[in-house]
Amino acid sequence: MPDIEHFRARLLQEREKILSLQATRDASTATVKLDQSSVGRLSRMDALQQQAMAQNASQRVDLALRRIEGALRRCDDGSYGYCIDCDEPINERRLEFDPTAALCITCAEARGG
Length: 113
What we know:
InterPro entries: Znf_DskA_TraR
Keywords: Metal-binding, Zinc, Zinc-finger
Pfam family, one: zf-dskA_traR
CATH topology: Four Helix Bundle (Hemerythrin (Met), subunit A)
Organism: Thiohalomonas denitrificans
CATH class: Mainly Alpha
GO molecular function, one term: zinc ion binding
Structural class: mainly alpha
Distance between the termini: 24 Å
Number of helices: 4
Number of domains: 1
């Protein structure tokens, strides 16, 4: 049985780190100005590319937060450390590598992940 409090602390720390970076992320995904007189075409294309990359990063961060919240819920309801598919214990080394893991390695491989 994994040390739930150890993993809860890691999850909370990771969540705080992500949330502290959200303000910066939100600023970089803001809408690009359409005024061609203030921004040249190449600069605007570069800004649009940077915006698209920031939006992609934003989606990854949102997914990470959802995974953290799911793991914290499992900590609270006593199911943390058990595979959500087969209900077998998840190897503690797997949890050390990824504390948000919800599947044992066998079920993760069966799903293609």
